[in-house]
Design goal:
seven-stranded antiparallel beta sheet, 4 helices, 13 strands, 188 residues, homodimer, mainly beta
Chain lengths: 188, 188
Amino acid sequence: MKNSLGAETVVPTTPVWVVGTYDKEGKPNVMTAAWAGVCCSKPPCIYVSLRKATYTYNNIMERKAFTVSIPSLEYTKEVDYFGITSGKKVDKFSTTGLTPVKSDLVDAPYVKEFPLIIECKLIQIVEIGLHTEFIGEIVDVKADSSVLNEKNLPDIEKVKPIVWNIAGMSYHKVGKSVGQAFSLGKEL
Amino acid sequence: MKNSLGAETVVPTTPVWVVGTYDKEGKPNVMTAAWAGVCCSKPPCIYVSLRKATYTYNNIMERKAFTVSIPSLEYTKEVDYFGITSGKKVDKFSTTGLTPVKSDLVDAPYVKEFPLIIECKLIQIVEIGLHTEFIGEIVDVKADSSVLNEKNLPDIEKVKPIVWNIAGMSYHKVGKSVGQAFSLGKEL
């Protein structure tokens, strides 16, 4: 017998991604988002869902582009700061000392110090309710050499991404592998 | 200097969720999805992105409802099986011995043995490309007592959800908390 918790978004797991945009004047901004993920393989697309009240919402509307920078665990403090402050009031890069890098493919900046970044051009806007979903086509993914495995792919144990736990309002690390896909299930 | 990996969806983290549906004849089916997440707080909504070739795609089109059952680590083998087989050919519940439970709120079944489930009614269909995004409004979330914390919320360390690592094609556990949100960043 399961307990009803009501119509709430208290579900794991969601990512901790940092969305990079430029405002009208060209000031780089970043915000943390957990309502985000992959939504298509061909074309490769990710989405971020944002409230209209955010600075980033208007920036994406204006520039039709965004990046996602995937932080390592060591930047959890900066990531939390990016989520509790607004680019309307502060310059989040100068406060944290992190470095905005202009993408040469889309009209948006990414965070130099984060090991893995995704550059996107806006292709769809989906109105849902409090949140608007921005679907971006991935133009390129870039990674530091230090997080690549022998296949030139980002190794999750080296990237050390953060997972969001809304029920506990806590950030979590990703643990060890518990099995290989397309393999384990063959036993059944 | 970052290395270009091309326009690929090789990004962490995405969840490992099991989508439950009924087909035309009322046969319960489940499939594993990682292109899934939360996309709105009010109304509370999640999405799953599916290829048209999946059995689940047609089931959602037909029934306008789906559930997501969030598996614990101990069911990784069954979850992999749910991802590599099709409901067109097999009855995934009978093969694994897991139990379909009919939701009393939406026209879809969930997995009894999984600790946390989400019941959704379909509210939007977004055509993107190879994948179609189904946005479902959360009607209820239900959890086993064993995974609830003192606030009656699902404790991520008790739910033990699985994270998908596409770059390594591996399933991962969620590790310990590395900090509290809306708190850590105040130091900056």
